[in-house]
Amino acid sequence: MASDDLRRRGAAPRWKKALGVGASLALLVFILVGVIPQFASYSSAWARMTHLDTWWWVAIVAAAALNQVSGIWPYQAAMPGLRFSDGLLQIETATAISNTVPAGGAVAIGMAYRMFSSFGFADVAISAAVLTTGIWNIAAKLGLPVVAVALLAVTASPTTHVIEAALTGVAVIIVSGVGLWLVFRSEASARWVGHLTDRVVNWVLHRFRKPAADRIERSLLHFSNQTVHIVRRRGWLLTVAALTNQAAGFVLVLIVVRAVGIAAGQVPLAAVFTSFALARLAGAIPITPGGLGTMDAAFISAMVTFGARSSQALTVDVIWRLTTYFLPILCGIVTYLIWCRRIVETPSS
After folding, report:
1. pLDDT of residue 260
2. Tens digit of pLDDT for each residue in 53-75?
3. Cα–Cα distance between 161 and 142 in angstroms, integer?
4. End-to-end CA distance of the chain
5. Are 327 and 61 in contact, with CB atoms under 8 Å apart?
6. What gap in Å lies between CA 41 and CA 38, rounded to an integer?
7. How far is CA 332 from the centre of its chain?
8. Which residue has the higher pLDDT, 88 or 281?
9. Alpha helices in 186-309 (DSSP H)
């Protein structure tokens, strides 16, 4: 009887997971088959790709390699002693998981713990590194669209709405930056930020007749205690590494854009950057693995809005995703097998 109860309790999560996967796949098919072909045909994108000059492909491959390698640097900044070869195994394997598994980000984090542990790092160091790199990565994805809109406001002839959006975004970044600084400044300031946030949240919960709690205060204290050492001593290095990683991703996109024939007079640098930033933000929403479909639709529509022809925008997106989505899956399979072989051989060495 007890086992029947356990099975009944375990069935709901499995059903929910299955429904989530089904909805994700349905949305993916709808975007790739129903939405994107409304802009241009895949055959036209393939025709443009086959006519690219060899030297453009050399530049694209080099930029793609730099983009993948730069993903190691934030972890090296947060984990002193992490070797490049170990970081490469981890980042490629994690990328492959994120790009193929539903809710792959969470699965990739679990794999990161296993791999970093096998490299000799303690659980506390791994947790601190995963937390800080995750926060810096999210901050970059949220901040890039704000910076992009601000650049458009400066370089183009902005409308009132663009200026207002830019000013609002800058204000959000400043407030968030001050909040993070207070969290890492001291335990007392972290407690104060958490307590103040809890008061706001509890005021909202009271309107819905929900009980008050101090979850945010406790979470911030736990987060601060785990990561304060890294942030105070290596925060600047982590910031540089995270920004370099984002810059490498944009350089890849910019090279592909120019390779396809979209000149600066057609789509300016600031517009390309805005399309890139909006696409990365859309891809951060965990609807499909690796943001496949949602990220592509956002990028193509933004590029077309800024003046690119639909066939050009689709070609850029196909090449971008080929180098940052599909090829990393193949690399990730290889790195995972290498890691598994190392794990098997380690006890006997």
Report:
1. 92
2. 899 999 999 999 999 999 999 99
3. 19
4. 48
5. no
6. 8
7. 17
8. 88
9. 187-207, 215-260, 269-283, 294-305
Q: 53: helix, coil or strand?
A: coil
Q: What is the mean pLDDT of residues 88-103?
A: 85
Cβ neighbors of 80 (< 8 A, separation 6 or more) are: 234
Cα–Cα dist 332/71, whole Å: 13
Residues 294 and 59: beta-carbon distance below 8 Å: no
- Residue 166 Cα to chain centre, angstroms: 22
Q: Structure tokens of 44?
A: 């036209």
- pTM above threshold 0.70: yes
Place of tokens 């999210």: 138
Cβ–Cβ contacts within 10 Å for residue 47, how many? 12
Has residue 41 got a pLDDT over 80? no
CA distance 41 to 199: 53
Structure tokens at 89: 């195994």
| Strand intervals (E) in 17-88 | none
Of 109-118, 175-184, 217-226, 321-330, the poorest mean pLDDT is in 217-226
Q: 308 with 266: CB under 8 angstroms?
A: yes
Residue 115 has pLDDT above 90, yes or no: yes
In order of 134, 228, 230, 231, the CA distances from 194 in angstroms are: 20, 16, 20, 18
Do 302 and 278 form a contact (C-beta atoms < 8 A)? yes
| Residues listed for the chain | 349
Residue 323: closest CA among 14, 66, 133, 5: 66
> Which helix (DSSP H) or strand (DSSP E) does residue 127 occupy?
helix 123-155
Domain ranges of the chain: 54-71+84-345
Cβ-Cβ contacts under 8 Å for 127 (sequence gap 6 or more): 226
CA angle 169, 174, 176 (to 5 degrees): 95
In whole angstroms, give the CA distance from residue 232 to residue 186.
11
Q: Which residue do the tokens 């789509």 mark?
A: 267
Shortest CA distance to 296 belongs to which of 152, 58, 310, 307?
310
Using a 10 angstrom Cβ sphere, with 0-12 exposed, 13-18 middle and 19 or more buried, the burial of residue 185 is middle
